[in-house]
Each structure stands twice: as structure tokens, then as C-alpha cells.
């Protein structure tokens, strides 16, 4: 007695997709679209932020990862630290890595 229909037998042997190589194409297409819409723009944004943080100078306004808007007072060359003014006569030292945005010159 044969319990497997011919439709299931044909599908198990490859059927319409041949050896299965065509079945990978939709996943490859999804990855390519995902790369160009999500990954690549984020990498470019990170590169631009890194360049802006490296070029920060005295008088620039910055936004820290903690949400503090500060004015750069002293840039320590060769160091990862920047001294910023968060209020009149209140200076703190922050790491360059904690700067999430450079807003330009202070007014």
C-alpha cells in the first residue's frame, strides 16, 4: 500500500525549484535591500559623527549621551577627554565617546 501521494513525492525531490538554489534568492534579495536601507546609512552616519567629534574645538556646542548640552572649553590633544562648560562656572570632563552630536559654534 502506498501512503505517499505523488504530489508529496514530487515536492521532496525538488519539484519546481530544481536543486533548491532558487529558493535562496528571496533571502538574498531581502538582505541586499536591508543592507542598503538600514546598515549602510547607519555606517555613514557613524563615520560622520566620528569625524565631527574628532574635529571638535573650543567654543563648539555638543550634546552628550546623557542629554546635557555643553560648550567645549578645553580639548586635550592625545587624550579621549574634553572639558566642557555645562553652566556658568561649572566645568566637567567628558569622554569623546559620550558625545552624541556636535551642534556647531556657541552663540
Rg calc: 28 Å
The CATH topology annotation of the largest domain reads as SH3 type barrels
Order of strands across the biggest sheet? 4-3-2-1-5
What is the overall number of helices? 2
Structural class, by secondary structure, is: alpha+beta
H-E string: HHEEEEE
Poorly predicted residue ranges: none
Describe the structure.
The chain is 35% helix and 30% strand. By secondary structure, it is of the alpha+beta class. The chain folds into two domains: 7-55; 57-107, SH3 type barrels (Roll), CATH 2.30.30. The chain starts with 5 loop residues before the first helix and ends with a strand. The model has no long low-confidence stretch (mean pLDDT 85).
Which helices and strands appear, and what pairs or packs with what?
Elements: H1 6-12, H2 25-54, E1 60-64, E2 69-75, E3 81-87, E4 90-95, E5 99-105
Antiparallel strand pairs: 1-2, 1-5, 2-3, 3-4
Task: Give keywords.
35% helix, 2 domains, SH3 type barrels, 5-stranded antiparallel beta sheet, rod-shaped
In short:
By secondary structure, this protein is of the alpha+beta class. It is built from two helices and five strands, in the order H-H-E-E-E-E-E. It has two domains: 7-55; 57-107, SH3 type barrels.
Amino acid at each position: 500500500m502506498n501512503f505517499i501521494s505523488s504530489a508529496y513525492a514530487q515536492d521532496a525531490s525538488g519539484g519546481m525549484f530544481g536543486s533548491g538554489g532558487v529558493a535562496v534568492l528571496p533571502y538574498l534579495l531581502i538582505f541586499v535591500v536591508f543592507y542598503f536601507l538600514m546598515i549602510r546609512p547607519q555606517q555613514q552616519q557613524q563615520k560622520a559623527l566620528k569625524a565631527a567629534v574628532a574635529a571638535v574645538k573650543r567654543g563648539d556646542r555638543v550634546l552628550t549621551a546623557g542629554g546635557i548640552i555643553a560648550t567645549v572649553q578645553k580639548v586635550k590633544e592625545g587624550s579621549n577627554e574634553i572639558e566642557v562648560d555645562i553652566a556658568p562656572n561649572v566645568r566637567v570632563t567628558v569622554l569623546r565617546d559620550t558625545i552624541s552630536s556636535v551642534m556647531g559654534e556657541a552663540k
